[in-house]
Amino acid sequence: RIASGVHGDHQALWINPADGDHLLSGSDGGFQVSFDGGINFHIWRNVDLSQFYHIFVDDRDPYWVCGGLQDNGNWCGPSRTRGGSILADEWYTVSGGDGFYTVPVPGQPWLVYSNAQGGYFRITDTRSGQTRSIEPHPWMVGSQGQNMGQARYRFNWDAPIHISPHDPSVVYWGGNVLFRSSDYGYSWDIISPDLTTDDPEKQLDSGGEIYNDNTAAEFHTTIYTVAESPVEAGVIWVGTDDGNVQITRDDGATWTNVRDDIPGLPAEAWIGNIEASPTEAGTAFVVSDNHRMDDFTPHVWETTDYGQTWRDIAAGLPQDDYAKVIRQHPANPSLLFLGMDRGLFASFDRGASWVDIRNNLPRVSVRGIKIQPQYNDLVIGTHGVGAWILDDIQPFVELADAMQEEAYLFDIREATDWESWSRDSSLGRSTFQGQNPREGAYINFYLAEAPAPGGVSIRIEDAGGQLVRELSNVRATAGVNRAIWNLTWAGGGPASTGRGGGSGAPVVPGTYTAILQANGMELSKSFQVRGDPEVESSLADYQARTEAALRSQEIQAGLNEMIGTVEDLTSQIEGLQETIRDKGLTNEDEVRVQLEAAAEELAGLDNDLRRPPPRMGYRQYPRLSEQLSFAARGITGAQARPTEGQLQVIGEVEVAIREAEGRLQSIITGPIAELNRLLGGEARILVGGGS
Questions:
Q1: How far apart are CA 297 and CA 274, in angstroms?
Q2: 115: closest CA among 200, 58, 53?
Q3: Is the Cβ–Cβ distance between 112 and 127 less than 8 Å?
Q4: Could you report the per-residue pLDDT of 312-342, keeping only the tens digit for each?
Q5: Are 381 and 364 in contact (CB under 8 A)?
Q6: Are 226 and 162 in contact (CB under 8 A)?
Q7: Among the four given CATH numbers 2.60.40.4070, 2.60.40.2250, 3.10.25.10, 2.40.160.40, the one describing domain 415-531
Q8: For 412-426, how does the pLDDT look when each residue is reduced to its tens digit (9 = 90+)?
Q9: What is the pTM for the complete model shown?
Q10: Which residue in 346, 386, 609, 670 is a FRET match for 469, CA 20 to 30 A apart?
Q11: Using H for helix, E for strand and C for coil, what is the string for 110-126?
């Protein structure tokens, strides 16, 4: 046997015709290469081929994303990290098998429900890794070779898990009946009759005369989607894989099948997803997937009266692609997001029209959609290129209002000053590195017309109205734009090689205001800045950090100015050494003596202010500029109050700079003044714009 240590479901194999030991293998686990005839395989991990069935988010801060992968188990991973990227090894597996639902418990995100093919059901405590099997009746479930006619309860290959939005201890589990547990799966109640068609012809063995093929992918007449109304407890929707749409308004006591009230619902269609409105009682959206019957058209409906009447909202969608999942935004009921087999669509008018949302998203099947409430991020799971996040979708929420204006500044979400922590060594190019969201305050704005070049600026002011930062010449076009403020004061950037400075001091958590100036209009919005939620620093600590950083910045600006003066005087002296040649000065020897003296003193001062050329880091000991930069980086590099040592070094550098200023003044009033006297009417050395 070959290919140990790689996924067992092999789908493709290539053998190099020039080298039989060189193999490429494609499997349910990605693709691999062997150079020894298959004895050992290297798994390529620098591409994302993951196929999500569903996607979920938890309520951690920052939040985590969870989902089930085709034949690769159930996983959770961070939406952002404190390092430079999101690595595959920062995800963890919750349970194995064909992964589908991976649902964290609200308020207890370490508890995660998950399932695998045909009715395997587990709950995992990710703090310890303890995983309990919690099937209501563990008899002929999953892929054990049975047909559905032999089972007491029937479960789809992709059976649904749903946590009550009213009580996170309550979970629903869809078979052919609806199960409910309020003790994390230790016991179950059945709260419905059989909600499917219970067609016995669809519960037989799969396979031929030689052997059966009951893998659980063939299981049918089962519940496929469950949704309880977040607005009205006890209103529960159920969709089945054989076309039923069921609703209870009394917590399961009675059920009504409303499938015949849905105009144009194909017979035997899979009810792929039901979205109970997050804000409106009686409203729900139904997505039917009928591609298994060679029907590749989209089927999407809305009801606002508990399923008595329905409105088809699929007319504005591509008619050669089928829909998979729909979500309604909780802050704007007119805003809908729809996953289709070839991408993601949005509607700003409750389904009357649809817009293709692409940006950098490939044409791929979108199987899961969630809106993370704290961050207002749109999270999607694709069946082929992993999980994707569209950060801060507030412009979608307010776009209809914005488009009525010449300029519009969207609400600004709370910004976080995140700590940085790189926990890996050099990774090369063989490890997939997911993107972290950009850090800072997202300032989103809309312009009806393209601005003139340099015509957009954004001022950031603190709660007292003091200018903190100005973003000038903001790049913008007609439509929605985003500028990102990096949560720092304006910095005194270095003007030439060897000068310190750069980014400004970090701001203190609190209230800030963004003031947008564009196309002759001025708009403003206030927002909050917070520190890293995992950092236990007080407001006084943050204030001390900012004060020390601003002090360092001010000292650095003075030092840079002095270095600039030294550079300028040195350049003038070097020029004079050439220009007085062949001038026939009667006192040329005296002038050259003074030029050498001034140049020598300036070089000595410059050498004390900064490393001399070639400025090669640890190969030359640090001078004042490097010492100040090192102390300042130590202060700004952590969300903590500065240490006594850091403040002491800053004070010592400040004293040394004052002494250096005295030396510079002595050079100016000494050899340089003498030079200007000797030169008389000839070219003179200018100091600070004068002589």
A1: 18
A2: 53
A3: no
A4: 999 999 999 999 999 999 999 999 999 999 9
A5: no
A6: yes
A7: 2.60.40.4070
A8: 999 999 999 988 888
A9: 0.93
A10: 609
A11: EEEEEEECCCEEEEEEC
